[in-house]
Amino acid sequence: MNDPVDQLIDEAREMIKHHLSEHIMLNRLCTALALMNAQIKHGIAPVPPVAKPERPELGQRLLSRAQVAERWGVCIHTVARMKELKPISFNRQNLRYRLEDVLRVEKERQC
């Protein structure tokens, strides 16, 4: 027997094939989403693992974007665009860079 969610999604696909009403099709898809959410909420469906953000070790020196920009004599937007320098994110407004990563980039750019 099929899972109710899979069954509703299959029904919606059939409706697309037969050009049935968009309203009915959207209703079926919304019902499928609601069922999936209910399954996750009640622990019936497995929830995919979420990667935990990397946290710095205690005592590790961290620099703000403005500090890195001042150190290099560039704009903060230039630091933000650098792909080789990955920030540690505490929240959307609080980004920090490891001093060891800053030193590594400086060393790479000197070579």
Short summary of the structure?
By secondary structure, the chain is mainly alpha-helical. The chain has five helices and three strands; from the N terminus they run ααβααββα.
Describe it for me?
This protein is mainly alpha-helical. The protein folds into 2 domains: 4-41, no CATH class; 62-110. It has 5 helices and 3 strands, in the order H-H-E-H-H-E-E-H. A 3-stranded antiparallel beta sheet has the order 1-3-2. Helix 1 runs antiparallel to helix 2 (22-41). The longest helix is centred in the first third of the chain and has 20 residues, at 22-41. It is elongated, with a radius of gyration of 24 Å. The model has no long low-confidence stretch (mean pLDDT 78).
* Silhouette: elongated
Structural class: mainly alpha
* Count of β-strands: 3
Strand order of the largest sheet: 1-3-2
Rg calc = 24 Å
* Whole-number count of domains: 2
| Mean pLDDT over the full residue set | 78
Helix content: 40-55%
- The CA-CA distance between the termini, in Å, is 63 Å
Q: pLDDT below 50 for ≥5 consecutive residues: which ranges?
A: none
Major β-sheet annotation: 3 strands, antiparallel
**Number of helices in the DSSP assignment:** 5
Q: Approximately what portion of the residues adopt beta-strand conformation?
A: 5-15%
Order of helices and strands: HHEHHEEH
